[in-house]
Amino acid sequence: MNRTLKSLALFLGGIALGVAAAGLFMLFHSSLTPQELEAWDKDGVVPGLVMQAGSIGFGVWFLYLVGWITRSQIRKQAGAGFGKIARSVAGNALMILLGLWFLWRMFIQHPEGVLINPTLFAQYIVDGIRLGFVYALISLGYTMVYGIVRLINFAHGDVFMVGSFTSFYAIKAMRLHLLPAKLFPSLSQWVAITIGTVLVIILSMLVCALLAITIERVAYKPLRNAPRIAALITAISVSFFLEYFSSLPEVFTSNYIIYEQPFKVVSWKILGVQISNVTIIIILVSILFLLLLRWIVYGTKTGKAMRATSWDKPTARLMGIDVDNVITKTFAIGAALAGAGGVLYAIAYPQLIVFMGIMPGLKAFVAAVLGGIGNLTGAFVGSLIMGQAEMLSAGYILTPMRDAIAFTILIIVLLIRPTGIFGEPEGEKA
Amino acid sequence: MKRRKLEFLGASWLFWVGAIAIYAVVQVLFSTNVITDYMKTVIQLGCVMTIVSLGLNLIYGFNGQFSLGQWGFYAIGAYASADITYRYAAKVSIPLNLGFATFDVGKIAIFLVAILFGALLAGVIAYLFGLPVLKLGSDYFGIATLGFTIVVKVLADNSDTILPFPEMKGARGMVGIPRLTTWFWSFFLLVLCILILRNILHSTTGRAIVSVRENEIAAKAMGIDTVKYKTLSFVIGGIYAGLAGGIYAHLYAFLHPSLFHFIKSFDPMIIIVFGGLGSITGTIVAAFAWAFSLEGLRIILPSGAEAWRYIIYPVALLLIMLLRPQGLLGGIEWGFLKPIQWPRRKIDTGAPTVETATQEAV
């Protein structure tokens, strides 16, 4: 009836026939006694031949699979040229090979594999969720800014770093997290610490928002009509400036510093899986901020203006929207989220350095691209995927490979679907 | 009449005389110990950075593809060539005594083969990587190439565990590379690179490459195979980076993965943006200025001021982007590197010009 089902049936039938033939042959081969085998196959070449034929068959099967997936993807896009198809085939082949290898490694080869030690697997999943929620807070800023001004805001990761450092000083020097307990001694300790932590987070968010507004006004606004690459280079130089300026001994420091958590970290063992209160707080706070952001973007007038600006800037201007104001607000909201993410990240991984923002920033960007840049849901889902991919690859492949895996995923995603999971499947225009 | 005698050298005689003069002067300064060994290394580092940046300028400045992968190709060239000389250079030695100086022809041959191999390997990888990725849009391409650099760095970190190269020693750094780069090779390979780039750019190919930067759609409409020229410039840029990596590896005789950290991949970008996008002259000037300001200032400035370099760079970059987005010498070339102004052919089609047409109408 339709071609997809027909080709699927053909394909599965072909595999079944091949498997059946090989199985019958092996059955026949193993049923013979050694003497009979000697008489029948003197040099023992037949099993090798079968193996070779099998591997060739696997290669053909693999190509067929790739071609099939690619074709179903390509058919949706109008005017797919040779380059696009080649790109898709390469990307699909890489993704399938990587996925198969990863599954093999996870389930079979690794000494602590999923089947042997399922608790460890659950632990990685929980850690991945924690990381993914922190990435979500960062990547939302990326995706909002990209959606509106089409700029990869490289300095976003460094704003995140400034958020962490602000909370460090708020806790270490200002003792802000103990302020409510001091002012209202009648409060119970638990409530006082909660309010104190919220104060620390709010302070970091404010500082980050102010920083982002300054950056936007000084560096990005004059380049609004310049080529996109000029703005990108500016973003890179702002990022460098923030990193190296903070690494001066007069400002922060260029060494690692130990972060002091505002509350005591307690962890419980549930079915052998370590779950700390930090994980729960990160998940709750992130979900709260995500809902808040959703409300801002879809429920308020500012959000309406943002969506209009990202849709069509000149028309939004004609409709009486102050576009510059909207862009500044977007930067501020994104940076505030990154600041909150910075505090949570520092609480979860209590070790700070001025270069700590680079990698989470880039990975959050990868997550935003993965989900479809400019799309809030996409950024959220992409971040969760990214957190899992990172934790699982650190756990089951090799710890230093986690960065490489993240960027391999990025390259493959860009090859298959440059607009991401939730993006519109349309060619991106430079 | 006097000029005629030098014509057999072509239009480039001044360039060659200048190159040999610079070589000779610096060589004399080296041998008379006016320049210390440290400064000698800095000058050679300037040559290396110039080659990397020329490659990047071809990709970004002339062809308009924002690539951050140059440093990955640099790493590939450095490790590949260092591996070859590490294995074979000790075994080959053919001394040649010319009376005034002794050369080890075998070592030189191994060195040249190694750096050429590194360059070609980088070129092949650039081709394979660029073929699918170059189709992406401007900043997606930048991010994908940045990812490439990061992956290469991670692989260099684990070259003894994941990759089968125990002699590279992974994150401990590769030692035992013979110090084969001399001032002669670093300088004349640079001259060769400049010459090749200049000749490419002033040919039909070069005009096609530049047309892709100016307007891709218009170039396509003119019948230019934009994919081909994008790939070509990306591969040549990769080859330049690989070559520079090979020279670098044999200059310092030590390779460490942290040298190839992706943050450093912004260095050639800084150089070409400073010097001017689409300017060979600007790239050369800026690369040497970069080498001297980064390494040379280390001697002069007090130790605390070192940290300020990386604060001054981004601010300067920001100011340049705001005030002069095409770079200090953007689009400006000096002397020999200037495009040749061929005399325009006068075409007399006999068609009425505007003036005659209006006169007739009147």
What does this 3D model show about the protein?
The complex is a heterodimer of chains A (430) and B (362). With 430 residues, chain A is mainly α. Chain A folds into two domains: 3-109; 118-416, ABC transporter involved in vitamin B12 uptake, BtuC (Orthogonal Bundle). Helices cover 73% and strands 3% of the residues of chain A. Chain A is built from 16 helices and four strands. Chain A has helices at 3-31, 34-40, 46-74, 82-109, 118-149, 156-172, 179-183, 189-220, 228-246, 277-299, 301-311, 313-318, 323-348, 358-371, 376-396, 402-416, and strands at 257-258, 267-270, 273-276, 351-352. In chain A, the strands form two sheets. Chain A has a two-stranded antiparallel sheet with strand order 1-4. In chain A, a hairpin with a 2-residue loop joins β2 (267-270) and β3. In chain A, α1 packs antiparallel against α3, α3 (46-74) crosses α4 and α15 crosses α16. Chain A is globular. The mean pLDDT of chain A is 80. By secondary structure, chain B is an all-alpha fold. Chain B has one domain (10-343): ABC transporter involved in vitamin B12 uptake, BtuC, CATH 1.10.3470. Chain B is 64% helix and 2% strand. Chain B is built from 13 helices and two strands. Chain B has a two-stranded antiparallel sheet. In chain B, a hairpin with a 4-residue loop joins β1 (95-97) and β2. In chain B, α2 packs across α10 and α4 (105-133) packs antiparallel against α9. The longest helix of chain B is centred in the N-terminal third of the chain and has 29 residues, at 105-133. Chain B is globular. The model of chain B has no long low-confidence stretch (mean pLDDT 82). Chains A and B meet through α4, α9, α14 and α16 of A and α4, α5, α10 and α12 of B.
Write a short abstract of this structure.
The complex is a heterodimer of chains A (430) and B (362). By secondary structure, chain A is mainly α.
